[in-house]
Structure to design on (84 residues):
């Protein structure tokens, strides 16, 4: 509460999409399995232009990326929402 009253903000970590450099497909994690890391290639709508539901995770922090063996993925920064 004090932070809100004094005008402090919490910096959110930069998020990235990971796009395979060979296929152009995005890396995704299945959120239905919270205790397991199940990754796959996203074949749905382009997450850069369409809203994606919460069953899949398509954005990752630099720390998450550093902890996985991502291979040859392009890191695409997620735009920061205005007003956040």
């Amino acid at each position: 509460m004090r932070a809100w009253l004094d005008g402090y903000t919490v910096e959110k970590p930069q998020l990235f999409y990971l796009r395979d450099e060979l296929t152009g497909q995005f890396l995704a994690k299945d959120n239905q399995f919270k205790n397991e890391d199940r990754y796959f290639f996203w074949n749905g709508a382009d997450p850069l232009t369409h809203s994606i539901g919460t069953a899949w995770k398509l954005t990752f922090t630099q720390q998450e990326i550093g902890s996985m063996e991502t291979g040859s993925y392009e890191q695409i920064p997620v735009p920061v929402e205005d007003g956040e």
